[in-house]
């Protein structure tokens, strides 16, 4: 019964975070909810990284991704497009290279969503040769 209550609580919290971001873009409230989740699932991490990547402070999305890695939460193929968007929006070429290393580590370099994120990030950073290389590999 305790496990069922934990699952129910996580479902409610996940829905609240999603609603906070969908309805009003209230990142402050969503981050407060997130801070109270002992072991967030990948969907919750992705939801917040995506929201932060498109916020006025995309570097916060990168910091959240770093926290995700520190807490040993496994990023998935849906995580990297959001992280790459945060890289592009923060205009950090170094960031894109670091994330590429993670993409390769997880074997997601052939995923079309991840590849599109890499192309966008490289293009924004004016690394057209890198963008072309990813495009040609698709």
From TrEMBL:
Spans of repeat PPR: 41-75
GO biological process: RNA modification
Pfam families: PPR_2
Entry keyword set: Repeat
Keyword Repeat applies: yes
Source species, domain of life: Eukaryota
GO molecular function: RNA binding
Designated name of the protein: Pentatricopeptide repeat-containing protein
Organism field: Salvia splendens
